[in-house]
Write a structure and sequence with these properties.
Layout lengths: L1 H43 L2 H6 L9 E8 L7 E3 L2 E7 L8 E6 L13 E3 L5 E4 L4 E6 L10 E8 L6 H7 L4 H32 L5 H11 L4 H19 L6 H25 L3 H9 L4 H12 L1 H16 L3 H7 L8 H9 L8 H9 L1 H19 L5
């Protein structure tokens, strides 16, 4: 009986522990997913609504105070001994509604749709709920500049692809896509090739100073990119001046990304390769295989999960990079990468900031394809070598 009771308590404890872990995992997923959902909703919203309300109000009617200047006197028509000016406050098909209106900003609640109020200039005006107004006077209008009408409008939820269309049709966006691919693909492949050879040597080859090299690689992981950027740039410019070459080239940005990505690549691949079965290596050596033969025919195929994990990291980092590309490649129209192009679309004062929402999703299309193509190897490659 005691054993059964203890077993029941342990089972309940495991059940509650598992439920708590699942709840925590769901909470973390929501925290990471919510901003992305908000960005997606904002990218599909109308610009006017995006400027005055948050994305969480996307499915509700938004209230906004606006002002409309009435037409000049030459728009009047005479009907049955009175003079009338008619028009619309809203564009055709906007589906906006009038909540209240008034002759000044301090009297917005003066009238409701369908009511009539006097204007200081002349006559009375009435506004319907759909924004149609009628300004009537018993004498002819003589004003050269129409008075202002203040109103509070109800803006219904509106979704469109206008923001995406503006981004995709911007001048130079296609060229920037090509430039980003030109930078990212070599800057991902080159460090993988170099790091794979280095990781195998540090994992399976014996030579003096191997432990110190591993320690240096681990230490380089904590060096901030921004701190090392200026020395690397000065050294690169010095070499370019000596050789007489151009300092703003794709080769320069490839080498910079390779240098900044190698410590993580070597550390990740070395940890994975150390965990490979030693028996396989010893059998290959007994059969007379060289280190190069073992590396190319056995280690590389077995290390594909780790290679894919680093490829995802490096690709995402290089694709989303702006600093290194700006420093080593410049901001000319022929070399501007996608992140730089999106920055240029904002202008120097942050104009058209609402296109950042759609621009963000345009820029993550390619990284998402890469991630979901290799995600099955991602966790396996990260966890490999962490547990002995």
């Amino acid at each position: 009986m005691i054993a059964k009771a203890l077993k029941g308590k342990v089972f309940k404890g495991l059940t509650w522990g598992r439920a708590g872990a699942h709840a925590l995992l769901l909470f973390l997923v929501l925290i990471w997913t919510l901003p992305t959902v908000g960005l997606l909703v904002s990218s599909l919203r109308d610009k006017d609504q995006l400027a005055i309300s948050g994305w969480w109000t996307a499915l509700t009617t938004t209230e906004r105070t606006e002002v409309f200047r009435l037409p000049k006197s030459d728009a009047q028509v005479e009907e049955n001994g009175r003079f009338v000016i008619r028009g619309e406050l809203f564009k055709q098909g906007s589906n906006r509604t009038i909540i209240s209106f008034g002759a000044s900003a301090n009297s917005l609640d003066e009238a409701k749709p369908g009511d009539t109020i006097p204007l200081r200039d002349n006559g009375d005006i009435s506004v319907s709920i759909n924004g149609a107004y009628e300004w009537v006077s018993q004498t002819g209008f003589t004003h050269t500049r129409g008075p202002r009408l203040f109103y509070e409008a109800g803006i219904p939820p509106t979704f469109s692809l206008e923001n995406y269309f503006e981004v995709m049709t911007s001048q130079g966006i296609g060229r920037s896509f090509v430039n980003s691919f030109t930078v990212t693909i070599p800057a991902t492949i080159i460090p993988i090739l170099i790091a794979a050879f280095a990781a195998y040597a540090l994992a399976w080859m014996s030579f003096p100073g191997r432990g110190w090299i591993v320690a240096i690689v681990v230490g380089l992981l904590v060096v901030p990119l921004q701190m090392s950027l200026i020395p690397v740039l000065r050294m690169y410019n010095t070499i370019a001046n000596i050789t007489g070459g151009d300092s703003k080239t794709y080769l320069g940005v490839w080498m910079a990304h390779t240098a900044f990505g190698l410590p993580l690549a070597i550390y990740l691949l070395r940890n994975y390769m150390v965990g490979l079965p030693r028996e396989i290596m010893e059998s290959a050596r007994i059969d007379g295989a060289s280190h190069f033969k073992i590396f190319t025919t056995m280690v590389l195929p077995l290390s594909f999960p780790a290679l894919a994990s680093f490829a995802i990291f490096q690709f995402l980092w290089v694709w989303n990079d702006l600093l290194v590309a700006t420093v080593f490649l410049g901001n000319t129209e022929s070399t501007l990468v996608l992140t730089g192009r999106l920055r240029e679309l904002l202008g120097s004062r942050g104009n058209n900031w609402e296109i950042l929402t759609s621009g963000a999703f345009v820029s993550i299309i390619v990284p998402l394809i890469v991630f979901f193509s290799l995600q099955r190897y991602f966790v396996r490659g990260l966890l490999a070598g962490s547990v002995k």
